Amino acid sequence: MADIHIDEFYQDCLKILVQLYNTFPRLTTLYVDDLISNAGTDEFGIPNRRHKACFDAMLWLASEGYIRYQDNIRHDALDQVVLTEKSFLRLSLPVVIINDSQDLPPSVARKQATIAWHCRQALKDKGSEAIVQAALQFFSQS
What is the 3-state secondary structure (H, E, C) of the chain? Predict the structure, then answer.
């Protein structure tokens, strides 16, 4: 059986981390609806499975020390969210060898060597294997 829920978890985590990296160091509100599509509720107003999984990914990131937040807005969002130092450093420090032969300006080469850049590219390409590899690279940093 395919572990699609794990692939979705990795994608949700990358979207959360990249969105917070893009607003760092400002505190922001992180809405499930901004992260995933079809994040509605059923006829009784209960969040669907996908919505709940994305919200739970946010809570997991917080409980594991990757993000901080002040409050939750029902099961729809986290309020006053920011990356922790651990996540900021993992996303912003170079993790690959910068190749000077690409004739890129040093600032561009440095940014392309970060996990943040690899996460953005994986999400942009929408390839599930690239997303999994970027997430594993982020989570396996010590």
Answer: CCCHHHHHHHHHHHHHHHHHHHHCCCCEEEEHHHHCCCCCECCCCCECHHHHHHHHHHHHHHHCCCEECCEEECCCEEEEEEECHHHHHHHHCECCCCCHHHCCCHHHHHHHCEHHHHHHHHHHHCCHHHHHHHHHHHHCCC
Global pTM reads 0.86
- Among 44, 52, 50, 45, smallest CA distance to 72 is for 52
pLDDT for 1-59, tens place per residue? 468 889 999 999 999 999 999 999 999 999 998 998 766 666 776 778 888 999 999 99
The gap between the terminal CA atoms of the chain, to the nearest Å, is 31
pLDDT tens per residue across span 52-105? 999 999 999 999 999 999 999 988 899 999 999 999 999 998 876 555 556 777
